[in-house]
Each structure stands twice: as structure tokens, then as C-alpha cells.
Amino acid sequence: MPELPEVETTVRGLAVLLNGERLVRVVLNRPDMRFPFPEGLVQALTGATVTGLGRRAKYGLIHFDRDTTLVFHLGMSGRWRIDPPEAAPHDHLLLETAAHRFALNDPRRFGFVDLVDTAVLDTWRGFATLGPEPLGPDLTAAHLLGALAGRKQAIKLLLLDQRIVAGLGNIYVCEALFAAKIDPRRAGGMVSRAALGRLVVAIRAVLLQSIEDGGSSLRDFARPDGELGYFATRFAVYGREGEPCPRCAKGTITRIVQGGRSTWFCPSCQK
Ligand SMILES: [Zn+2]
Q1: 181 classed as catalytic
Q2: 68-73 and 261-265 as β-strands: parallel, antiparallel, unpaired?
Q3: pTM (2 d.p.)
Q4: What are the residues facing 81 on neighbouring strands?
């Protein structure tokens, strides 16, 4: 499943070829993905010029000169194929500029797109309740202290709550808690301000490291079979059950289940 760094890398890759370009052809190959495609989408995008790209949480944004924004979510298996040599099954949406073709491919179809008036983007249904961007200025220790105050639920689960921080998935929550030396089982309201300060730094660091890792895949996106959005990155604890802790060497990375999902951590140095 694409996480925030993969969406960011996808957006950066698309921006290189799409920014400032006019769509000369738009094709829908089916009526829906997870949700129906917006009515009139082909007409709304054909002839429109891309004025910028962006990301909010795990959503990619393509802004057009018609005061509209195409919002896309990659779901479980979505990806953009750049200049695919031939049409493939599951290419649901095709955008063409004079020079390039961009196919939104998603075998499982948990992804979707929507077309939104740019002026009211912040209140779009997917964005209205989102917490601060993890890489933006609004994610601070003070924000977390307020949002977690009195909360008895485990910090791990609270960090997956998109209303508290936007766009964090299981991998990066595990990695950030490890980097900040916080026990994922600790009640949110019991995490000290100092630890939350470390957590903010850690969240940014693990995301930026991964985006940097993904940046190397950007060099590949111009390949004929170039696909954006998936790349290998290095994790300290995620998926490393049974291995020695890379930090304290005393502990063994342990997997537990919280809220039905796996958590990996070091019981020795995460307090
Ligand atoms: Zn350790």
C-alpha cells in the first residue's frame, strides 16, 4: 500500500512532466474505481492546463487552470505509469499531453479520483477532518500534547488517527516511535512533552529519509515501463521481528498486535 513518501515521490515525478502542460486527451476505461469517476470528468480535463501539483496526507493533487483540482488516492495497489508502451489491464484513467501519457493503473481498485473546486479544496470530504501535515509547520509537540491529553488509548493507535496527524500509516508510526524511543503501548495522554518533541522530529526524519530513498527511483521513471509510487526503503524495526535491536543491542525486535495491526518495537529501549 502506498504510504505518504510514495505519494510524495509520485507527485514529484508527475510534476516533472506534467506541470505547465495541457491535456490533449483524457480517456476513461471504466465508469468507476472505488467510487464512480466524477460526471463530466473527460470534458472537464480535456484542454485544461496543469498549473501545479501537490499532496495532502496520502492524496495527490493536480491543479488545473480551470480553478479545479484532480484529487487522486492510490488505495492499495494504485500507481501512475508514465508513457506505457501499450495499454495494460487496469489502466483506468489516461491523461495525455503533447509529449507524454500518464496511466492511472490500479488492479484492486481501492484507489479513486475526484474533481474538486480548488477554492474549496480544504473542505473537501477527504480533507475536512484531517489533522496537520506531518511535514508541515502545524505538527508540533504542543499540538500533540493537546490532541493526546487525557487519552488512554495506546500512542501507536492514536498516531494512526488521521485527525491527530494526517497521512501516517503503520510503517512510519512504528519507525517514528522507535526513533523517538517511545513504547507504542504507552497511553497517549501519558507521553511527556519532551518525548512528544522527540516524536515530532522522528516523524519528519523517517518520512524525509524515505522520500529521499524514493527520490532515487525518480531517475527511473522515464523508462518505457516507468511506474511511480513504489520503492524499497530501509526500516529499523518494521518487519524485523526477532532481529537484535539496531540501537541498544540488548533488546530483540518484537511484534505485537494493536488494533488488529502489527507493531514492531524494541521492548528494551522504547519506554
Ligand atoms: Zn533497543
Answers
A1: no
A2: unpaired
A3: 0.91
A4: 103, 227
